[in-house]
Predict the 3D structure of the following.
Amino acid sequence: MAERMELTRPVFFVGFMGAGKTSVARRLARTCGVASVDMDTYIERREGKKVKEIFAEGGEEGFRAIETDVLRELGAKPDPLLISCGGGVVVTPANHDVFREAGFVVYLEVTADEAASRISDTSTRPLFRARCEERLPLYEAVADVRVSTAGKSVPAIAREVQRILEKEGILCPQQR
Ligand code: S3P
């Protein structure tokens, strides 16, 4: 049975593809009884197209514009969410403003090699590896907290994030 907690601010999960953002957010959502949303899935539903197709049709620029729009929308929901972001969310400067103004950013750290080994189909993830290096400082810049994922299971990472969010007063027992 979930604990039924609530969030006081949206929580954004960032990190390389394969860092476990979606799995950790989903796990935490289940154990704490809060809602989570995966940005790429949300974008695909909203646009009625796969991320791959959005890239093919509108280029990276087109995808990034949609991504920023969705980030703003999800960050402004009256009931704050756990939001797993796409790996490239940090390359758009406007997104840093959304993070700073609205939420709390959890950076799930993973090495490029580990990320590669966790990704089954890199063909659906067009920019893999190409930008790993240049993104590192961007993740560090937006992070409110960094959590290393090396050698840890998804439940263990989720518990660690839960403790951090409780300590920060972002995840609280439900008032009602
Ligand atoms: C991207 C990462 C993907 C997705 C898109 C672009 C990137 O998200 O948003 O393919 O630029 O790194 P995941 O990190 O969830 O795979």
About this structure: Helices lie at 21-32, 39-47, 51-75, 93-102, 112-118, 132-142, 154-167. The first strand starts at residue 5 and ends at 7.
